[in-house]
Amino acid sequence: MNSPAPLLAALRTSRHLAVLTGAGISAESGVPTFRDALAGLWARYDPMALATRAAFQRDPKLVWEWYAWRRRLVSQVTPNPGHYALADLAQRVPRLTLVTQNVDGLHQAAGSPEVIELHGNLGRVKCFDEDRIINGWTETGEVPPRCPDCGGWLRPDVVWFGEALPRAALAAAFAAAEGCDLFFSIGTSAVVEPAASLPRMAAERGALLVEVNPETTPLSDAASWSLCGPAGLVLPALLAAAWP
After folding, report:
1. Choosing from 16, 83, 107, 119, which is the catalytic residue?
2. Can you give the chain as a three-state secondary structure string?
3. What's the pTM value of the predicted model, to 2 decimals?
């Protein structure tokens, strides 16, 4: 990949680089997206119909077991070169803020520090009633397990459709978009709000905008540079060109 010289210069001189990643970068590791058809025992279910509070209240066992299946899928995959390139990039610029819409923890597994998770994390569990993280509970065989404090159901610490994003994570993400001088949008559809507003906000504040995606998105025309390709190929090549 031939990287534009002005982009390489912007990368080398950036004081605050903000990055937003979406499902595309995880799909390169084999993590299925919500647009993918479910397989095996789950093929007859609509993932968008399972990822709601109403679905959990209606059938908590079904929803818990679906997320347990998703956790097993994620446990079998590893970060790809795109994840590792971002962890490497954090060591090369004065400041990098990494915001992700993904819930798989692959950025952390690749070594990225202080990841802002807009949609939560599959590896964490919280109380459905009290909405707080639970680190341990007594296994009784009941599915889902019960909160050790209030006795309510436990649920995955992920943002379901119709729920608000974590307030602190969202505030940190918008602060990064407002304060960065270079913004990378990687593997996102650029249509899911409020995350889709982050790159546009950064551009409005004067940041240079870079999109990395195999497909054209609604953001492509607004980007200073639109790099067509998977993150696992584009990002390592970009780093190698910027710091040969």
Report:
1. 119
2. CCCCHHHHHHHHHCCCEEEEECHHHHHCCCCCCCCCCCCHHHCCCCHHHHCCHHHHHHCHHHHHHHHHHHHHHHHCCCCCHHHHHHHHHCCCCCCEEEEECCCCCHHHHHCCCCCEECCEEEEEEEECCCCCECCCCCCCCCCCCECCCCCCEEEEEECCCCCCCCHHHHHHHHHHHHHCCEEEEECCCCCCCCCCHHHHHHHHCCCEEEEEECCCCCCHHHCCEEEECCHHHHHHHHHHHHCC
3. 0.92
Digit-coded pLDDT (tens) for 159-178: 999 999 999 999 999 999 99
119 is catalytic: yes
Per-residue model confidence (pLDDT) at position 60: 96
Domains of the chain: 1-31+79-119+165-244 (3.40.50.1220), 34-76+124-158 (3.30.1600.10)
